[in-house]
Design a protein that fits this description.
By secondary structure, the chain is mainly β. 9% of the residues lie in helices and 32% in strands. It has seven helices and 42 strands. The radius of gyration is 69 Å and the shape is extended. Keywords: Calcium, Cell adhesion, Cell junction, Cell membrane, Glycoprotein, Membrane, Metal-binding, Repeat, Signal, Transmembrane, Transmembrane helix.
Length: 790
């Protein structure tokens, strides 16, 4: 049996094709199972199939509360006794689709969306409930999701930007828009879209089926309005009522064309400039206005009328202004105003719009020149002068002239820029401008002097004009010719008579206009020598030729030959130059092997006795020297005796032991202790006797004060000053700082002297009990010497 609202359609299918098993769709549709075609013989023997293929159809976006019934599976093996169980597998078999294992009813438990997945492939199978053994083979079937109009058209490209030239004809295509609908285009009208324009009329229109936007008005002008925003709607269901729709915006910009000529805002311009304006400076700027933009607004300017050609005009590419530039200097006194006519023309003219009129415009510019106080002007900026190098001081060379171009015509004073004449070779007369020499000139030192002459107005010295003067020093014949180089001439001993041994040339610092011409000859004093002669080659060179052969170094190793050179100047100058020739030993090709003196060779074969005698003399001298040195070392005497020695540099040894305090023979103890011994001042050899010392020594009379008679607080000071003075004037003292040791105990001590030097005059057995009364500092000393004698 079949349970489904569409059972009637299922019953109409051929039963022999369906077999005993059926797959019943909830939508009422039942299709044939997939199979391959067979021939008549196979049809007679075909096996009966248990499964019937169908495609289930399920509506998308089901919103009911109960699971959506999809269809029913049934097998003729199922007798209704519950022994057969239906199993469902495949896509969504557990998450989306469920099957009643007893009845075979299939339900969808979730809402389906065709745009996410259009169909599901499932496998159905009937198995034994107890053994799970399939009672029918596994077979596949499809569950297709039927589309509904649940998606509006969408413009995937978003906002559109487009452009169309201004002044375009009616119906010119601008851009094409496209919307897509996610619904099924093969089912109904859900995905059939039509386009319409909501905003943007009457300037533009859109084709309903294609979405092509076209101009709806002709000759739209960018200069009036250059941008339009359109709203385009796309609606499905062929635009019928209930269809879904989507919109997008389209911004259309009118692109510029050259349909506007340039226009000057004024027909006359006036500008004022100073006559001191430098050449190539900007005089003025003018601009023609063009309503177009970009390349269509680019312009070319030209000057139509400009009398003397003082001005030129160029285009500023950034601002499209006409820049008037000065080409020649202005002169108020010559002309103080100029009228210039200027034309502005579009650089890129569109032939399609020539009928609109001329794409150019003209204007008039008046330039007025203002007078300024100008510096003096020279008649010529560069003057060339010449002066002979033997010209006397004060010789006039030339004159420069300048004038004040202003109407005041001030007097002019001239001077030389001394930075161009550091050595002050020239002077210029301040009033007349005459240039003269101030020092003797020498062309060979400096042949050209470039001076800058300054011209100043007497009324306004700040206005200075300059001109440049090139003074060329003209040459005179004041330098004699000399050898071109220092020649090193080699004369071979095997030189033959008539052989050229040297070719000489000359140089002259002068530069005669016709060039140099030198004449070579031998002085009269050596013209008749028998060794060499000179041959003038008439080309400013000369050859030195031997008169004989057989030169020998042993006889003469150097020859000196004077050469007289005369120039062609007026008056002619000459000089005598000496050519030195060294005699050398040469090979057969004339290449020098050795030059200079020949060593003297002793006769070979000295006798053996002579050699022995020479050797014996040398040995005897060596022995004598060694003996003298050894003897001096034994005596320990220096080879060079010093007349004066500083005893402090020597160590004096005494090998005998003194007698101690009881020995009165070796030293006078009293004299050694006496501090009042008068020392005669001595003068140092390395200082001037009357030179004052650094410290102010106390002046002493012929008889110095006795130390013992001085107060206790003065004793030490006087003693130190006295020793310091002795050290400064001591003639044997070194002229450098030294350490002076003063072993003076002073007088007036309560304990008197503790030195053993005066023990001779005192009792050796003394009483030291008084030490205990001196306080804690002398306690140790009192313990050593005080107390009962043992």
């Amino acid at each position: 049996y079949i349970e489904n609202p569409g059972t009637l359609l299922a019953l109409l299918l051929p039963l022999w094709e369906l077999g005993c098993w059926g797959l019943i769709s909830a939508s009422g549709g039942q299709n044939h199972a997939q199979h391959t075609a067979v021939g008549p013989w196979e049809m007679l023997h075909r096996h009966k199939r248990s499964w019937v293929w169908n495609q289930f159809f399920v509506l998308e976006e089901y919103t009911g509360e109960e699971p959506l019934y999809v269809g029913k599976l049934h097998s003729d093996v199922d007798k209704g006794d519950g022994k057969v169980k239906y199993v469902l597998s495949g896509e969504g078999s557990t998450s989306i689709f469920t099957i009643d294992e007893n009845t075979g009813d299939i339900h969808a438990t979730k809402r389906l969306d065709r745009e996410e997945q259009a169909y599901y492939t499932l496998q159905a199978q009937a198995v034994d409930r107890i053994t799970n053994i399939p009672v029918e083979p596994r077979s596949e079937f499809l569950v297709k999701v039927q589309d509904i109009n649940d998606n509006e058209p969408k413009f995937m490209d978003g906002h559109y930007m487009a452009g169309v030239p201004e002044m375009s004809a009616l119906g010119t295509m601008v851009v094409q828009v496209a919307a897509t609908d996610a619904d099924d285009p093969t089912y109904g009208n859900s995905a059939r879209v039509v386009y319409s324009i909501i905003s943007g009329q009457p300037y533009f229109s859109v084709e309903p089926k294609t979405g092509v936007i076209r101009t709806a008005l002709p000759n739209m002008d960018r200069e009036v309005k250059d941008q339009y925003v359109l709203v385009i709607q796309a609606k499905d269901m062929v635009g019928q009522m209930g269809g879904l729709s989507g919109t997008t915006s389209v911004t259309i910009t009118l692109t510029d064309v050259n349909d506007n000529p340039p226009r000057f805002s004024r027909k006359n311009y006036q500008y004022t400039v100073l006559e001191s304006l430098p050449v190539a400076s900007v005089v003025a700027r003018v601009k023609a206005v063009d309503a177009d933009i970009g390349p269509n607004a680019e312009m070319e300017y030209r000057i139509m009328e400009d009398g003397p050609g003082l001005f030129n005009i160029t285009t500023d590419e950034d601002t499209q202004e006409g820049v008037i530039i000065l080409q020649k200097p202005l002169d108020f006194e010559t002309k103080n105003s100029f009228n210039v006519r200027i034309e502005a023309t579009n650089r890129n003219v569109d032939p399609a719009f020539v009928h609109l009129g001329s794409f150019s415009d003209t204007t008039s510019v008046k330039v007025t020149v203002e007078d300024v106080n100008e510096p003096p002007v020279y008649s010529t900026q560069l003057s060339r002068m010449g002066v002979s190098e033997d010209a006397r001081v004060g010789t006039s060379i030339g004159k420069v002239s300048a004038h004040d171009p202003d109407s005041s015509n001030s007097a002019i004073r001239y001077s030389i820029d001394r930075n161009t004449d550091l050595e002050r070779f020239f002077n210029v007369d301040a009033l007349s401008g005459v240039i003269s020499t101030a020092k003797p000139l020498d062309r060979e030192v400096n042949s050209v002097h470039n001076l800058t002459i300054l011209a100043m107005e007497s009324q306004d010295p700040t206005k200075i004009g300059k001109c440049f003067v090139a003074i060329t020093v003209l040459d005179i014949n004041d330098n004699a010719p000399v050898f071109a180089i220092e020649y090193e001439t080699l004369l071979c001993e095997n030189a033959a008579p008539g052989q050229v041994i040297q070719t000489i040339s000359a140089v002259d610092k002068d530069e005669p206009p016709s060039g140099h011409r030198f004449y070579f000859s031998l002085p009269v004093s050596v013209a008749g020598n028998t060794n060499f002669t000179l041959r003038d080659n008439k080309d400013n060179t000369a050859s030195i030729v031997t008169k004989r052969g057989g030169f020998r170094r042993r006889e003469q190793m150097l020859y000196r030959l004077p050469v007289l050179i005369v120039d062609s100047g007026s008056p002619a100058l000459s000089s005598t130059n000496t050519l030195s020739m060294n005699v050398c030993a040469c090979d057969s090709d004339g290449v020098a092997q050795s030059c200079g003196a020949v060593p003297y060779i002793l006769p070979a074969g000295l006798s053996t006795g002579a050699l022995v005698a020479i050797l014996g003399c040398i040995i005897t001298l060596l022995v004598m020297v060694l003996l003298i040195v050894s003897m001096r070392r034994k005596k320990k005497e220096p080879l060079i005796l010093e007349e004066e020695r500083d005893v402090r540099e020597n160590i004096v040894r005494y090998d005998c032991e003194g007698g101690g305090e009881e020995d009165t023979e070796a030293f006078d103890m009293v004299a050694l202790r006496n501090l009042n011994v008068i020392r005669d001042p001595k003068v140092r050899r390395d200082v001037t006797p009357d030179t004052h010392t650094f410290f102010p020594y106390p002046m002493s009379s012929s008889s110095q004060a006795v130390y013992k008679t001085l107060p206790d607080n003065v004793v030490f000071r006087e003693f130190i000053w006295d020793r310091l003075k002795d050290a400064d004037v001591e003639p044997s003292a070194p002229p450098y700082d030294s350490l002076q040791t003063y072993a003076f105990e002073g007088s007036g001590s309560v304990a008197e002297s503790l030195s053993s030097l005066e023990s001779l005059s005192t009792d050796s057995e003394q009483n030291y009990d008084y030490l205990s009364t001196w306080g804690p500092r002398f306690k140790k000393l009192a313990d050593l010497y005080g107390g009962e004698s043992l």
